[in-house]
Amino acid sequence: MAKLWETSKDGGLDPAMDAFLSSVGVDQRLLAVDIEGSIAHAAMLGRQGILPERTAAELGRALGALAVQAEEGSLAVDPLAEDVHSFVEAELTSRLGDSGRALHAGRSRNDQVALDLRLWMRRASAELREALLDALRAITELAAGHTRTLMPGYTHLQRAQPVSFAYHLMAWAAALRRDYGRLEDAAARADECPLGACALAGSGLPLDREGVAASLGFARPSPNCMDAVADRDACLELAAACAALLTHLSRYCEEICLWTSYEFGFVKLGSSCSTGSSVMPQKRNPDPAELIRGKAGRAYGDLVALLVMQKGLPLAYDRDLQEDKAAIFDAADTALACAKAFATMVSSIAPDPARMRAAAEEGCLWAADAAEYLVLNKGVPFRTAYAAGRALVLAWESARKGGAFGCSPAVAGLLAALGEAGLAALHPAWQGTETGELSRYLRLDSCVERRDQVGGPAPKAVVRQLEELRAFIAAKAEAVPAPAASIQ
Ligand code: ARG
């Protein structure tokens, strides 16, 4: 296929070099948006009198037919084309002759590819946000019945303080909502139309940049033509949002791997979302969680590729930028596939509240509350109260080692055995403490219930977080119409 820029006097490209330079294998995914951009450009050329109305209309009709064929999948992209833009122009020219050759007035592939990318990313971002909303819905449904399902909260992967399963899931949701916001922010900043920037310096033709931007649904034309064709920070931002999202998904997947292990046993994955072993008949493996965790690295690689590709480039367009597409397609594809798989997997989670509570009862998760009891009820300075709490923990540990409470690890058993005098003997700050009252204060349910501040784990506070999340999902689902076509 002849190049757009080839003249009869030039010798042709070396065939291997031709194949090396071609991007059509990757950028044919831009076919639909390339046609969309060309329809807007042709119409603008007609409105501005740069092309006769008749020619513009003819181009519009032919491009519309191409769009239909592209949608049906019946438009075979020539693998020998230099890129998708050359292919569409050649196809038009073969159908319309000179009218096809008129389309590129006031346009360069530099602003064309910048436009196509933004149109594609607009769809990708909307589709990603849709998938994120599904993940948030799945989290909401899973959390709903578990505001009183106690489990250990961890720091350093050591049992720390009691929380509820719903509260832990709301922590996931809080971070995923920020990922949603990052995608929105990136889309808002990318909402500028590069068309009319042409090669780098605009065009001497009387183009209407505002009009064409509006007709393509952009908020505005890009403010500087050189920047419009030179920069790919919109790709960087989308890739960074994908990378942040995958970091979150990867962490939650790691938790799912831990929780489904025999050692934790907090949850089970349904058979629709776990796999067996080819040799060990007893096994159920959390493969989707592991694969999402593994795929996060790809998105980081794509982000780094985009950063490094641009860092040394003089303005304006350089061919290095052709590599942007493979990276941003992969980052968005990976994030989308992972968000969808995550949503499906979360829907299949079956928690085991008894295992979670048993884990929370073991390990003195009431210890910080013991110190706070003294602060609140006896006016003991926190550092002293901490030492008194520590003394109670040591007593609990040695009693437990001696098998003092049979099978019940609750601190109530220890306090009953100690009595007021025994407790006071552990540390002077405990002097005059009524052990029955302290027992009630240290019940795990009480520890969680009294934490009803904003963002806290108390059932009431978590119900508020759930309600707020449901309202967010409903508002976003209404605001963002599902994308017309999938990026995949
Ligand atoms: N295939 C090219 C790319 O993806 C299109 C732009 C080509 N522009 C140029 N001046 N060679 O970047």
Strand content: under 5%
Uncertain residue segments: none
What small-molecule ligands were found? Answer: arginine
Structural class, please? mainly alpha
* CATH fold title of the largest domain: Fumarase C, Chain A, domain 2
**Terminal residue distance:** 28 Å
Look at the structure and give the CATH class of the largest domain: Mainly Alpha
**What percent of the residues sit in helical stretches (DSSP H or I)?**
55-70%
What Rg, in angstroms, do the CA atoms define? Answer: 31 Å
Largest sheet: 2 strands, antiparallel
SSE ordering: HHHHHHHEEHEHEHHEHHEHHHHHHH
Cα shape: elongated
Count the strands?
6
**In the CATH hierarchy, what is the architecture of the largest domain at level 2?**
Up-down Bundle
Keywords:
Fumarase C, Chain A, domain 2, 63% helix, two-stranded antiparallel sheet, mainly alpha, 488 residues, binds arginine
Mind explaining what this structure looks like?
This protein has 488 residues and is mainly alpha-helical. The chain has helices at 15-21, 24-27, 31-47, 53-72, 84-96, 98-102, 109-144, 165-189, 209-215, 225-230, 233-260, 287-311, 324-347, 353-361, 367-378, 382-401, 411-426, 435-442, 444-449, 459-479, and strands at 150-155, 158-164, 192-193, 220-221, 267-269, 349-351. It folds into three domains: 15-105, Fumarase/aspartase (N-terminal domain) (Fumarase C, Chain B, domain 1, Orthogonal Bundle); 110-197 and 223-359, Fumarase C, Chain A, domain 2 (Up-down Bundle), CATH 1.20.200.10; 367-442. It has 20 helices and six strands. It has a two-stranded antiparallel sheet with strand order 1-2. A two-stranded parallel ribbon has the order 3-4. Strand 1 and strand 2 form a beta hairpin. Helix 15 crosses helix 16 (382-401). It is elongated. The chain starts with 14 loop residues before the first helix and ends in a 9-residue tail after the last helix. The mean pLDDT is 95. Arginine (ARG) binds at residues 23, 27, 83, 109-110, 113, 317, 319, 321-322.
